[in-house]
Amino acid sequence: MTGKTLAEKILAEKSGTDARAGDYVEAAVDVMMAHDVTGPLAFQTFREVTGDDAELFAPERTVLTIDHHAPADGVRAANNHNSVRGFAEEFGAVQYEVGDGICHQVLVEDGFVAPGDLVIGADSHSTTFGGVGAFGTGVGSTDLGTAFATGELWFRVPETKRFEVGGDLQDGVYAKDLILKFIGDVGFAGATYDAVEFGGEAIQALPIHERIVLSNMTIEMGGKAGLVEPDGRVARFLAAGNGDVRAAEVATGLGPDADAEYDARFTYEGSEIDPQVSKPSNPENAVPVTEVAGTAIDQLFVGTCTNGRYEDIKIVADILEGERLHPDVRMVVVPASKAVYRKALEAGVLGTLVDAGAIFQTAGCGPCFGTHSGVLGDGDVCLATANRNFPGREGSMESRVYLASPATVGASALYGEITDPRTVETRRYDDYRVAEEVSS
């Protein structure tokens, strides 16, 4: 019998079966997560399932965040926040407050997720956790509410598509460019319910904060999970993290077998991939930046669970240092967590961006889902480091959103139009590897 993919290995271990693609398994879940938008329905389901004897299966591994409407932008949001607080206090769940950060960021940042884990979250971008070698996936609030009580959930073991990038990337090309290229090549539904593995020399050379970008946006091609093979860098990253909750449990030697079967393989040479931009209004509309260079923009958005880490923000600050935003544009910067915010403050990055004319907001999701500070008006054009650009995603249905890397956003801020980052000075990954990316 052939070997296994990363997804098959993790689901086999968590289900205690010889799990293969297409099998249905009941698997033990390591970490469960909900936020202020998806939590209330999960809480309701949990109470219905458990009745009068309600207890969380694993309160120390049930994580609740207040990050989407943070701070509250209306009474309904404020009531949702209170629902999260009340549930956490009643049942002992781990809870993050307004301004602490985005769910996906804090779970990785504080060491809740380790390689080989099975992590579910009531948010589609829970695929993020594959950046450290976990099987992370989004589930519905009702499924999550049941798992809160049982610690288990049914899964269909997915087929796997593998993306390999050999060689070295060009200067000015980052993980965001890779994932946009992949999504553009296979389409928005091209990996529906598939696991996606990322490998090859260029992928393994990526620091952790960049690997997370690949896994985060796997859902934009329909993927069930997106996994990067964990290595020593992951172990060092987790061991140096803020919370260090589960660093001691880091798996070693976890990787796909050489004879694993894949639904499809896609191979690339890193030096041949250009900076990418996804045109409105679907991430699959990815093209080389040169095809849209010169497009006038009104707003720049730096942040989200995709590219809101310190290293992402610093790339933009490095480009803008000593400069001002083009007078025709505005920039909204939203750190992914309080730790990112603090580091940006202490390192002078925040000051550089404020001096350039940018607006800094409370750590959280910001305008990414179109209901909070920084939303777009009719006819506005935005270049964002976000993950989605559907009609109305960041405000008006009549606005247009382009997706790009922080480097492309930073370069474009200088000229008020989409600009190839290779035309300005950017820094490579090694400049951000301080103590194995502790800050990520």
UniProtKB/TrEMBL annotation:
<keyword id="KW-0479">Metal-binding</keyword>
<comment type="similarity">
    <text>Belongs to the aconitase/IPM isomerase family. LeuC type 2 subfamily.</text>
</comment>
<comment type="pathway">
    <text>Amino-acid biosynthesis; L-leucine biosynthesis; L-leucine from 3-methyl-2-oxobutanoate: step 2/4.</text>
</comment>
<keyword id="KW-0432">Leucine biosynthesis</keyword>
<keyword id="KW-0411">Iron-sulfur</keyword>
<dbReference type="GO" id="GO:0051539">
    <property type="term" value="F:4 iron, 4 sulfur cluster binding"/>
</dbReference>
<comment type="subunit">
    <text>Heterodimer of LeuC and LeuD.</text>
</comment>
<keyword id="KW-0100">Branched-chain amino acid biosynthesis</keyword>
<dbReference type="GO" id="GO:0003861">
    <property type="term" value="F:3-isopropylmalate dehydratase activity"/>
</dbReference>
<feature type="binding site">
    <location>
        <position position="305"/>
    </location>
    <ligand>
        <name>[4Fe-4S] cluster</name>
    </ligand>
</feature>
<protein>
    <recommendedName>
        <fullName>3-isopropylmalate dehydratase large subunit</fullName>
        <ecNumber>4.2.1.33</ecNumber>
    </recommendedName>
</protein>
<dbReference type="InterPro" id="IPR006251">
    <property type="entry name" value="Homoacnase/IPMdehydase_lsu"/>
</dbReference>
<dbReference type="GO" id="GO:0009098">
    <property type="term" value="P:L-leucine biosynthetic process"/>
</dbReference>
<keyword id="KW-0408">Iron</keyword>
<dbReference type="InterPro" id="IPR001030">
    <property type="entry name" value="Acoase/IPM_deHydtase_lsu_aba"/>
</dbReference>
<dbReference type="GO" id="GO:0046872">
    <property type="term" value="F:metal ion binding"/>
</dbReference>
<feature type="domain" description="Aconitase/3-isopropylmalate dehydratase large subunit alpha/beta/alpha">
    <location>
        <begin position="9"/>
        <end position="416"/>
    </location>
</feature>
<keyword id="KW-0004">4Fe-4S</keyword>
<feature type="binding site">
    <location>
        <position position="368"/>
    </location>
    <ligand>
        <name>[4Fe-4S] cluster</name>
    </ligand>
</feature>
<dbReference type="Pfam" id="PF00330">
    <property type="entry name" value="Aconitase"/>
</dbReference>
<dbReference type="InterPro" id="IPR050067">
    <property type="entry name" value="IPM_dehydratase_rel_enz"/>
</dbReference>
<dbReference type="InterPro" id="IPR015931">
    <property type="entry name" value="Acnase/IPM_dHydase_lsu_aba_1/3"/>
</dbReference>
<dbReference type="InterPro" id="IPR033941">
    <property type="entry name" value="IPMI_cat"/>
</dbReference>
<keyword id="KW-0028">Amino-acid biosynthesis</keyword>
<feature type="binding site">
    <location>
        <position position="365"/>
    </location>
    <ligand>
        <name>[4Fe-4S] cluster</name>
    </ligand>
</feature>
<dbReference type="InterPro" id="IPR011826">
    <property type="entry name" value="HAcnase/IPMdehydase_lsu_prok"/>
</dbReference>
<comment type="function">
    <text>Catalyzes the isomerization between 2-isopropylmalate and 3-isopropylmalate, via the formation of 2-isopropylmaleate.</text>
</comment>
<keyword id="KW-0456">Lyase</keyword>
<dbReference type="InterPro" id="IPR036008">
    <property type="entry name" value="Aconitase_4Fe-4S_dom"/>
</dbReference>
